[in-house]
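A note from the maintainers: we've had questions about how concatenated examples are separated. There is no special marker in the raw files; a new sequence line simply starts the next protein. For clarity in this README we add a label.
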Amino acid sequence: MNLLILYLLLTKATLTSFSGSTAIPIIRQDFVEHYHVLTDRQLNAAVATGQTAPGPNGLFVVSVGYFVGGTAGGCLGLLAMMTPSFLIIPVLQFVGRRAAHPAVKSAVRAVTIAAASLVLGVTVPMARGALTGVLPAAIALGSFLFLVLTKRATAWVIVAAALIGLAASGLGKF
């Protein structure tokens, strides 16, 4: 894939997402479904890598860039991830002055609901590539229940899943 196209697509995803994970549906549509330069398995790996690394929630964009364009693609993914930061100050000034206005509150609430729906919508196709047996399904269910019932940090889920995967791999069960 042309590196300029890669940067523009990743920038589109980061500019139109309102938290790191809401870029996933956009990235999946562009890179997995439209251009076929990434698989669901690679997207899952990129998201998992981004979640385990310290830093911003959308760090998986760098991994997507790397999977598609190598080291140069990873660097462009980082640049695409930072691009919205340059625009946030004028947006905050504009919205901040109008935050109490009912129309602004409604717009922010609607965008939040849409973002959550996008994340749910991309979960099913990504899960198809990852849930390949009883153990992956148990990890998914256990992770979900742990997060919902305990309100703990996602880092615990990632670390526990990695340890379970390592142990299962050593036993030939994964």
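[label: protein 2]
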Amino acid sequence: MACIWMDGFEIDFADNTAGIWTTITQLNTSTVSYVSTQKRTGSGALRVLSSANTKNGYLSQTLASSYTEVYGGFGLRWDNAQALAEGHGGLGVQLMEVVSSDATPQLSMTLDTATNVLRVYRGRPDSGVLLGSGVTGLTTNVWHYVEFHFVISDTVGVVQLKVNGALDLDLSAQDTNVSASNIKTISIGITEGGGSVSSSKGASADLYFDDFVLNNTTGSVSNSWPNGAGIERLDPNADGSYTQWTSTGGAADSTEVDDVATYGNLPDGNTTKLSHAVVGQRTSVALDATTISGDVLAIMLLSNVMNSAAGADQMAQFVRTSSIDYDQTTFTPSTAYAWQADMMTLNPATGVAWTTAELNNLELGWVVK
């Protein structure tokens, strides 16, 4: 694996829920939302609208493993961030944070709204150490793509930033380790610690995020800079090679699982669904073609699933490509609907990166285990 997490913020979520992320943190339910306006690519973007009464708002993802080195990137547009620098003694607004396996903040990225440049701190801005500042001013009301490369170490730590593809900060031989020498959780939005909006100063911020990518350094592709990657949701548009599961009222399988095809729609639970209990039975759907050109860096299989009764019933997502099925992680669904995500950097049929043609011809399916 190389790409370990990504989100184009293509699927809306109910108020005060994290969507496909692990957790959401916000003082008011209106702070964090997905919007179809101001998107960088695809159908939507993450908006963090913070004011004197709302403070922090961010999403956090706990990774499957801990890492000492990561590359990542995200689209950033800031339409307003008034008084943030004043409100936090010049610390600006904290955009991102990486946290160790023992829940200790390791590194934080902030936007200094006095100079419009990015900064990186060891720990949090209000209690940590400023490691360095970028040189590129991020103008308002336009999209920028911010990339980062972090190595966690007491002595040979690395902090690199790129803005719109150009190197903006380049630090080596740094102490980037506060505790545990790893990264386990990553947060994006207006995160904790000094860079949160100050209610006492009446600060406000209107920020947009899109196309978040996180890579580790393993594998042959997607093991370094995301290079301004775009992310797009591909929805079911026709039945696939298998139709062995039971649909609601005998409808076409693809129409039972396209709940979020219209941006802003939430999964509809049991209103439309596919279900089955016989081990080995499969169903699959064809997907929309991508509209983004360039190399395919990774795909994420994403399904909203549940088990209708408590028990040990298991299932897996699979892709069908080149007329062969490739089952992904076997898991036991809970009795409440939840998102299951499987990352695939390589096409298992070829052992190399996906091509656009292969992506446009694959099927997404589910199998009872």
